[in-house]
Amino acid sequence: MFYIKDSDNYKSFINEKEIFEALEKNKGNDIVRVREIIQKSIGKNRLSPDETAYLLNLSDPECINELFRGAERLKKEVYGNRIVLFAPLYIGNECINDCQYCGFRISNKEVFRRSLTEEEVGKETLALIDKGHKRLILVYGEHPMYDAEFICKTIEKVYGTKKDRGEIRRANINAAPQVFKDYKRIKETGIGTFQIFQETYHYGTYKKIHPTGPKSSYIWRLYGLDRAIKAGLDDVGIGALFGLYDYRYEVMGLLYHTMHFEERFGFGPHTISFPRIEPAINTPLAKTPPNVITDEKFKKIVAVLRLSVPYTGLILTAREPENIRKEVMKYGVSQIDAGSNIGVGAYSQDDEESYKKSQFVLGDQRSLDEVVGELTETGFVPSFCTACYRMGRTGEHFMEFAVPGFVKRFCTPNAILTLMEYITDYASEKTAKSALKQIKKEINNIPESKMKEQLKENIKKVESGVRDVYF
Ligand code: SAM
Ligand code: SF4
Fold first, then answer.
1. pTM over 0.90
2. Largest alpha-carbon pair distance within the chain?
3. Dist. CA 71 → ligand 2 center (Å)
4. What is the CATH number of domain 6-13+81-390?
5. C-beta 105 within 6 A of ligand 2
6. I need a labelling partner for 303 at 20 to 30 A (CA). Which of 193, 271, 401, 452 fits?
7. How far apart, in whole angstroms, are the C-alpha atoms of residue 358 and residue 102?
C-alpha cells in the first residue's frame, strides 16, 4: 500500500502558529463587531480566520445569543426550511488502524468483525429502500479487503437494487483516503460526495491518537481529498471529530482546509461534518474524551461554522440526541440522517448482538417515519432530492447559496416532489397528514407563476405513480 509518511516533507496547510495567534489576538465581546461579522456572512462572504476566531472566543451571553440569531437568519434567508434526509450503510468494520476513539480499531478484541457480501449489501439496501430512503452514505473500515474494486462493487450493488417504485439515487462514501487511480475508478460508479474527516487538525494530538496503520500519517490524510478532486471527484466532504482537542482549534482547522481548497481548486468543500465523540464498546477514550464538548459548546460550533463558511452543507448525524438535533437544525444544518442503524448488517437482520458490530452508540434512534413526521410538524420540509447531481449540477449547496433564485426554482419544488413520493409510498397515516399540510403551506407561499403550475402538475403525476419527477 502506498502512502505518504509524515517525514516525507509535505507541507501542511494547517498553519498552527497562525491559528494560535488568531485565537489569541481576537478576543472580546463587542456586540457591534459581532453584528458586523454576521452581516458580512449574511452578505454571502466567507469569514476570515480573524473573524471566525472572534466568534469562537465569545463568552458574553448576549453576544452568544446574537451569534445564534445570526446563524438562524442566514439559514432561513439563504437555504429556507428544507432538511435533506439520508441513512448510513455500514459495509464492513475490519480495520488496520488503531484510532483510539473508535470501536473498530485493530486493537479492540471485543468488537465482532463483519463485512457484507454482495448479496448482503443487496439485502441491506432493500431494507433501506423499504423505509423510503433515497440517499445513503456507505461507510467502510480501512482494510486491504476494502480496496477500490470492493468499494466499486458495493456501490454498483446499491445502485442496482430496486424494489417496486423504490431505489437509491445517491450513494455518498466515507472510506479511507485512496490513491489517484482508485478515486478515478470510484468516480466512474457515479458516487455523490467522498467524505474524509481529519478527526483532529492538531498535529501533536493526531499523532498520539493514531499510533499505527496508514491513518497514522497526518499528511496522507490531510491531502486525501486533494487527490480525490484531482481525480475528478469535486464533491468532497471534510470533518473534524469534536472532543479530541480544543474545539476552537478544530473549527479553525476546518476553515483553513476550506481556504486551501478555495486557493488550490477555486471552490470549497461540499459539506462539513462535526461529530462529537460518542461512547463505543471497549473504548475508554470515547467514554471520557480529552476535551468534553458540552451542548452549549456544540451549539456554538454549529453556529460559527454556519457563518464562517456560509456556502457549504452542514451535516448533523444521529450520534446526537433528539433534543440537540432539534435545536441546532435551526442554526444552519442542511442534512441529517434518520432511522439509522450503524451495526454491520443491522437493517436486514434482527440481531441482538448488533451493538457489538457497531462503531459507537447512537443518540437518536427514531425511525425515518417519526423523523419525517416531527420535521413537518415543526415547519421543516424533509427532502430526498438528488436532482442536481444527476443533472450534472455538482456543488448544489454552493449553487443554492450563490445563484439567485436557485432554491426557489429547484430546491423547494424538488423537496416537495420527493416528500410527496415518500407520502404516497411509505408514510404512516399520521406522518402523511402532517406532511401534506406542510406541502400545502409551501405551495401557498409560492407566488403564482408558470413554475407553480408545473409543480402542481408534477405533484399529480407523483400521486398517480410516476416516479423521479424533478426540476
Ligand atoms: N474508516 C474510515 C475513516 O476512518 O476515515 C471511514 C469510516 S469511519 C468509521 C467514519 C468516521 O467515524 C471517522 O472519520 C470518525 O470521525 C467517526 N468516529 C469514529 N469513532 C467515533 C466515535 N466513537 N464517536 C463518533 N464518531 C466516531
Ligand atoms: Fe478504522 Fe476508521 Fe475506526 Fe479509525 S475511525 S479505527 S480508520 S474505522
1. yes
2. 63
3. 32
4. 3.20.20.70
5. yes
6. 193
7. 10
